Amino acid sequence: MARTPVEFRLNGAEKAVFVEGGANLLDVLRRGLGDMTPKYGCGQGTCGTCTVLVDGRPQLACLTLAETVAGREVRTVAGLPDGAELHPLQDAFMENFAAQCGYCTPGMLMAAAALLERRPDPSREEVVEAISGNICRCTGYEPIIAAILDAAQRRRRRAS
Amino acid sequence: MARHKGRGFAAINYPIGMNLGGDPSQALVHSNPDGKFMVSLSSIDLGQGMKSVTRQIAAETLGVPVEDVYVDTADSDTGPHCMGSFASRGTHRVGNAVIAAAQEARAVLLEAAAEELEVSAADLETDGRGNIHVKGAPGRSITTAAASLAAQFKQGRTVSGRGIFLIPFAGVDPETGEMTPVSCFAHAALVVDIEVDDETGEIEVAKLSSAYEVGRALNPKLVEQQLVGGAWMGMSHAAWETTEPYYPDRGHGPEDFNQYLMPGPGDIAPHDIAILERPAPDGPYGGKGPGEMCANPVLPALANAVYDAVGVRIDELPVTPEKILRGIQANGGARPKGRR
Ligand code: FES
Ligand code: FES
């Protein structure tokens, strides 16, 4: 199968990879580039745990053709912390007990990161909508919603 | 067309663990020369907090800071035997095994300290902050690290302990068939408030209110986390999830998340939880285990709420809009029971 060179930025770093025709972004990130933070849940666009940001917008990596991110900026959970300092979302998820098995967590974090960049002070309804494509089996969602609202406050405090 | 409010209630007694073969679990505890303790288990943490709770239990029993305890559940091939993480047995069974193992390890630790301090082990106590000292004379003290180090390099002792918990065999009374399969019960009561649309058959959950008696809540935040999450798994079993129509034949059944429905973040409702603590006599520090029972009362409570709202008695799960509509039709219309 034809292999295409693809260049894009992953969490700020330039990456150049060869991808097979039809390869999806999730495989390229995990197997090709070794970024294991986006998870494989269903592989068919229904669980949301593979969510990454492409040019700031949440996108399901399992349904994204790797070739389509050429020249773009891809962000994953690996890129959330600022050096040793965790992202406010990560702190808030820990302190609000927003994960049990943790399988949904990377997708929730990225969906929430996109929301907070767009809407620094979101309403509860906006939070619910932002994560409505992400399934969580363990938490009952409430702690996740609370964590995202809390993270918005932390983020605004850090910025000011 | 109308929306009908309904309220349903359910109460449960929930047996902790099972009795098969005595439902045993083992734990091994040992110290490293730096005075940190390792708890080896085969009991899996799938997010419910097994590692956190056994770590607390080990630290409390050993008398050392919780930071000095590691729990390793890495491999059921190499770890001591455990029946598994199910039947809400983890805290109770594994916790008791950890207490037994930690008590044995603590006894050796105190002997090692006694030898260094030239006193009797019976005169020693721990301060929970990493020191062992003579009772009433905190000045005559040695750190757990120094005692572990001496045990390893001077005294030739292993600071270690073995623990197992096994439910005593329960015989069956040949006359009555009576037996005691379970030594520990937890309890819960739950009220659910819903609205049922008599045109679409859809249910909207307005509020959950519950009380759970879990023995001692060894880690209150983890207990709350399980109860909040587990209630929605219960609700999901009650109103969404199904392997219908021909289970166990998979034909036409749901095969993926598009068809196998579960509540999403937009479907949840507030849940008011009261955690009642009544320590279990045979539980580790009184703990029972929230486990599965956080889902259980939701199912009967929801079925009762539907009956209250529209007078349809549904006895097969899940409570789907179709079943509600068929019931309303069979009754010749919605028959709200009304507030009594
Ligand atoms: S793995 Fe991509 S949505 Fe489930
Ligand atoms: S924490 Fe387990 S799926 Fe969300």
Automatic annotation (TrEMBL), chain A:
Pfam families on file: Fer2, Fer2_2
Segments passing through the bilayer: none
Keyword Zinc-finger: no
CDD domains: fer2 (cd00207)
Top-level division of the source organism's lineage: Bacteria
InterPro entries: 2Fe-2S-bd, 2Fe-2S-bd_dom_sf, 2Fe-2S_ferredoxin-like_sf, 2Fe-2S_ferredoxin-type, 2Fe2S_fd_BS, Beta-grasp_dom_sf, Diverse_Oxidoreductases
Native organism: Paralimibaculum aggregatum
Record-given protein name: (2Fe-2S)-binding protein
Alphabetic keyword roster: 2Fe-2S, Iron, Iron-sulfur, Metal-binding, Oxidoreductase
2Fe-2S ferredoxin-type domain mapped to chain residues: 4-80
From TrEMBL, chain B:
Keywords on record: Coiled coil
Ranges where the Aldehyde oxidase/xanthine dehydrogenase second molybdopterin binding domain occurs: 4-268
Signal peptide boundaries: none
Annotated coiled-coil segments of the chain: 100-127
Gene3D superfamilies in UniProt: Aldehyde oxidase/xanthine dehydrogenase, molybdopterin binding domain (3.30.365.10)
This protein's name: Molybdopterin-dependent oxidoreductase
Organism: Paralimibaculum aggregatum
Organism placement in taxonomy: Bacteria, Pseudomonadati, Pseudomonadota, Alphaproteobacteria, Rhodobacterales
